[in-house]
Fold these 2 entries.
Entry 1:
Amino acid sequence: MPKITFNGKETEFTAGESLLAFLQSRRFAVKSLILDWNGQILTEKDPLDTLYPKDGDTVDLFSMVGGG
Amino acid sequence: MNVNPYLSAAQQTIFTQAKIGIAGLGGLGSNVLSHLIRAGVSHFIAADFDTVSPSNLNRQFFFADQIGQKKTTALTENLRRINPDVELEFHDCLLTEENIPEIFKNCHVVVEAFDKADAKTMLITALSKTNIPIVAASGLAGFGKSNDIRVRKVGSHLYLIGDLTSGISPELAPASPRVGIAAAMQANTVIAILLGIQI
């Protein structure tokens, strides 16, 4: 099974699974999340359902919470 | 006027040429501006549509006799008391995904200083097609846990400051000490980016 480094941990994923499907399968709500996908910054406005991680990729999640 | 006599000539040149964008003039934005102006940065482009309200005084760089004034007007007055020569291009408007790239297009760094989580991600989305470094904040409400607030570099041009978890809620209000820590770290990160030193 292909693996990505997800939030610092080696994690298996289903080949052909989109970034959105990967996150949803792990119960992450995409709203107010910042994704760092191999150094590329993505938000909920990006077409996460059409982006596909590959074996060896790195995905890190950061949540944006209110206050300022 | 040079308010920071401790800068080297090289640092002074960099600070004089820098143009910094500030998105929002609340607890983060007003305090980031105060820090950067005292450090010797002198040219800013900022925007906020709001007026000063009594609930702002627990953390924002405004005063009781300014309640009801436009934040752009009140903050111009306060910041010019630090340095009368500071160049402030303040826009009294709502920032949107459409106008953000235009308003901040000539900035060397943009500070995300909004209150709401969806506005924070909106700014990051709006500037994602540019290579302008963004210094954003997430997780700074409440008291204590000072050491949980830190700077993370995300991707090539995003810097995230905060603990990423302490969002505002009815039980967790924003207050001067933690908002101030985050604002000071945002200002210090802007300076590190300008000088090319460790963040």
Entry 2:
Amino acid sequence: MTDPLLSLEDVHASYGESHILRGVSMEVSPGEVVSLVGRNGAGKTTTLRSIVGVLEPTRGTVTFDGEDVTHLPDHERVQRGIQYVPEDRQAFPDLTVDENLRMGDLRSGGEGIYTVDEVYDVFPRLRERQSQSASHLSGGEQQMLVIARALVGETELLLLDEPSEGLAPQIVRDVLDVIDRIRDEGVTILLVEQNVHAAMETADRHYVIDRGQIVFEGDTAALEGDREVQEKHLGVGATLDEP
Amino acid sequence: MISPSLFVTELLNGLTLGVLYLLIAAGLSVIFGMTDIINFAHGALYMLGAYLGLSVIGVTGSFWLALLIAPILVGVVGAVMERLTLHHIYDRDPLYHIILTFGAMLMITEGVKYVWGPQPQQFSTPAILAGTATMEMSMLSISYPIYKLFLIAAGVGVALLVWGLFKFTDFGLIVRAGAQNPGTVRLLGIDVSNYFTLVFALGAALAGAAGVLAAPFLSVSPSMGDSILIVAFITVVVGGLGSFRGSVVAAILIGLVESLGNLLVPELTGFSVYLLMIAVLLVRPQGLLGEYKVRQASTKVSFDEVIPPVRVTSKTGLAAIAVLMLVPLGIGIVWSSYYVGLLSLIFVWALLALSLDIVMGYMGLLSFGHAAFWGVGAYVTVLTTVHYTDLFPVALLLAAVTCGVIAWGIGALSIRLTGVYFAMITLAFAELFHQIGVTWSEVTGGANGLIMPIPQMFGINLGDTVVFYYLTLAILVGTYALSVRILDSPFGRVVKAIRESERRTASLGYDTNKFKRRAFALSGTIGGIAGSLFAGYQWFVSPETLHWVVSGDAVIAMMLGGMGTLFGPMIGAAVFIGISEGLSAYIPGWRFLLGLFLVLIVMFAPRGIASLPRVISKSTGDARSRLFGDSDEIDIADYEQTAAKEGENE
């Protein structure tokens, strides 16, 4: 087995007094698409934030590409190739689409997967809106913009936090297509999802998190077969099971 | 009839003035745009630029070298200042930034006095720009100083340079992105904190350049930044906080309003600028070209620990009163009557700080205009005793009522504004009163002020040091007890709820504006009493009592002591007046120490002196727990405390 690209060992993290992560351990190998599934408040976003360094773990280690990055500041982790697309999108509203993309290109570090020009080919909608300010984009377009912005920088590992959250079903399709396309480029992806079906559709391997601890690890077939995990930790009821 | 030549000359004067404001406001606007910091040290940096320019000319003899080197040096000063202080407290309430930069202003001003001396200095116009240019056309005959024309060109140049820097460079792109969301910039792999330092340095350098450019045109003195700072604030607010283009437009507009306004409506000389700002804030609070940003609108004064006021009837309260009652007995034995007089002055300032704490510490609205109440209270007192009655208490009562009514009026107009916007509109109102004090000389005596008869009441001489001491002490204790009472009442609880969240309070069905107006009126009333007693203390009143520096000093005294505690601001006033009156006699550069003290308080004890016992006991407690390794238990104790407090808040 190849060395993992990312590994978390017994990571604890808290916001002030509230202890959110209580010993999370997981691994992501190069080229994999892995999902982290859990209910609201289970610690999914906090895990991502600990990986990218917005939040410093209180205990445990985060290893990326063979290097202990647990206590590196966030911008230095990004320079090493960890790209984080947060749930609340965070395009710069007063900058144009083009300027937003250029912001992704300014960091020091290696080449991106795409140049700004190439990324417009992947996201043709963005080219049409090149000189408009990001605040005029729809929710789906903003999501595309933020993913595109991450990809113009060096991307070894892409962390996506509920990329389809709050989007219309047709737009969700587009976003999933884009994720497929990115994985075909060989980008390693860690995807956070609340919706277990979306996770199973996109990722090969899954972790289930509940109350700050990993309670399940396995491939799609294993997750599909494990009704107990689905009911107990994901709140998937029998009647809501099939779409 | 105004001749065309006069009109064009005034137009050019307006442009010159506008460009001068633009040069100073540019740096302020750049700094605010990214960091949200209202830099009170900006006027001092401008002044520093002029002095450094003077020295460069002294060494090299070249104005142009001065124009290059002085701004760089000022930029370095700005960078150091940011790196050592502001850099670590960006997440704090804007109020702390104001206090900190105010402290820095005092330090820079004193430093300049120490190096260059306090006297104004001559800064000669470079030979090539000396003299006047004349123009003759059919109806026009104008001669105009070349230097002023150069200044206009330089202003346009600086504005274009800054605009281009932000529009076309990577640096500018990162700064604009960082202004919107610094966290996301970091998540793109860029260490945005360095850009905060660079932007602050750039803003400081712009101030320095403005100083050099203005120097041949104005005289160079340590106080040259004081009055221009307020105009620069007005420019930035009128243009729209954070909008550079807005600042440019506003600067030119203000310059023209001032010069053409004086020409067309001479009665409004000195008022027009403040009226313009009030009008803009009332009609379009976000400014001409700005956007209303919630962050700038919220002075979020939220405390992680509540320090309750000391009750008058508690042991500490009674003991303090008893000790203070005994003080005059020591005259001639332990101390001279000078110190008793000083204590009365402290009591008077304590009242002003207390009044400010009601709106600021308890309601979360930063008033930067309490000088209005202090000054109006003093003027009403003096005018009443001069013209109508020699009964001091009547004058005092009249001052209190007048200020209460004025506060209610200002509140009715401006109470829906919050945060920086509220601070600025209160500042503008206070400056209006200041202008009235200066210009309405038939009544106020103008800049010379008015002398009042020795205060008395039914034959009792209130001017006697000891009698006045007991009078102020009694009023202070009474006001304090009453304020504690009011803030503990249902009314006070709503006021405190507004501080925590105005929206939530409103959603519970309270008319929050009504409560804010009343609390502001209460605060104004107490401020008026303080001003009245101040007149009684010095038997004299002058427009200085209405100057914005008084408002600034009151905010500092409040912060120093610890706002939101009622007794803290009074301690702060004691320390502040103690330092300014006490140290000034012994240490020439005492204002430098005061500035340093302010900076240190903001950095290390943001809840002020009132919190020092806790800060100290906490740090020794931490040391103890490190020693014995029982930190886990402490954590749990803290956790329970927080949980209990959260329970209270729900």
